[in-house]
Specification:
zinc, two-stranded parallel ribbon, TIM Barrel, BKACE, eight-stranded parallel barrel, 3-keto-5-aminohexanoate cleavage activity, alpha/beta
Length: 308
């Protein structure tokens, strides 16, 4: 593990809906502004999804990503990470389209299929701004986020051809073994940026013991060839990412993962969360990696070699 921590900020995601927070960015201008502010606050990596500006629905189209990717690149030095997870109901081709078209330094890669449930949020929303939101959330009761071995291989081959590296999103212990399978086959090369995810209903639970087990498993499978990062959903966000940093790992915050800044307090921006974790890490004596230091740690191809 590194002596410096990489902060990733996930700006909007495809999980939360506009009725959950007035601060969730949905338009290209909002996403770009939030990304730039998060980078200025200390995020070395910006993880990006796109949305329809009219009602905030997840939007997988490359054209929508191109409405904010060049603007963010022009205004920051941060590594830009394009999702391949997309959102509920998207086809495989839709999920990968933006990353294939834009050839980013990093792209996310879910390392297996699992239940991804959001339906519990319905009871916490008294009024919906848009008709799609209730249907989207309730539909997750019957939703499997699919990434089979064939689908993962498809994405790895498509994106590796452009020099894109991966944020390997591991929602359970078995996903680490799935990654090891592709490592053994030579489809991906170190260093591996392993993002362990806790607190999603349908995946591994938000218990500190689970983080320790995931880390120990990754140590056995990948030795010194990986960089651990951690995110956690909702109220578990700050405690879990702090524990990751204490263990020598990296951290991910942002409104994709949690809408709050503390108990009963909505975060008014992504930069608020980046600033908070940076203060915590500063107090712990943990240095923050710059974007160029993160590039060196993850061996990305550099901002000059992307497709936007």
């Amino acid at each position: 593990m590194s002596k410096k921590a990489i902060i990733t900020c996930a700006i909007t995601g495809g999980v939360h809906t506009p009725s959950m927070s007035p601060y969730l960015p949905v338009t290209p201008e909002q996403i770009a502004s939030e990304a730039v502010a998060a980078a200025e606050a200390g995020a070395a990596i910006i993880h990006l999804h796109a949305r329809h500006p009219e009602d905030g629905r997840p939007d997988p189209s490359p054209a929508r990503y191109m409405e904010f990717l060049p603007a963010i690149k022009e205004r920051t030095n941060a590594i830009l990470n394009v999702t391949t997870g997309g959102g509920q109901g998207m086809t495989l081709e839709e999920r990968y389209a933006a990353a294939v078209a834009t050839k980013p330094e990093l792209a996310s890669m879910n390392m297996g299929s699992f239940n991804f449930a959001l339906f519990e949020a319905v009871d916490r929303i008294p009024n919906f701004k848009h008709a799609w939101e209730r249907t989207y959330l309730e539909g997750s009761k019957n939703f499997i986020l699919s990434n089979t071995f064939a689908q993962i291989e498809y994405g790895m081959r498509m994106l590796s051809d452009h020099g894109t590296r991966f944020e390997f999103e591991c929602y359970d212990v078995g996903h680490l073994y799935n990654l090891a399978h592709f490592v053994d086959r030579g489809l991906v090369k170190p260093p591996f940026f392993v993002q362990c995810i806790f607190g999603i209903l349908g995946a591994i639970g938000p218990d500190p013991e689970n983080l320790l087990h995931m880390r120990a498993t990754a140590d056995r499978l990948f030795g010194k060839d990986y960089r651990l990062s951690v995110l956690a959903a909702g109220r578990h966000q700050m405690p879990f990412v702090t524990l990751s940093a204490i263990l020598g790992g990296n951290v991910r915050v942002g409104l994709e993962d949690s809408l709050s800044l503390g108990r009963g307090k909505l975060a008014k921006s992504n930069a608020d969360q980046v600033s908070k974790i940076r203060r915590i890490l500063d107090e712990l004596g943990i240095d923050i990696a710059t974007p160029d230091e993160a590039r060196e740690m993850l061996q990305t191809k550099g901002a000059a070699n992307v497709g936007f």
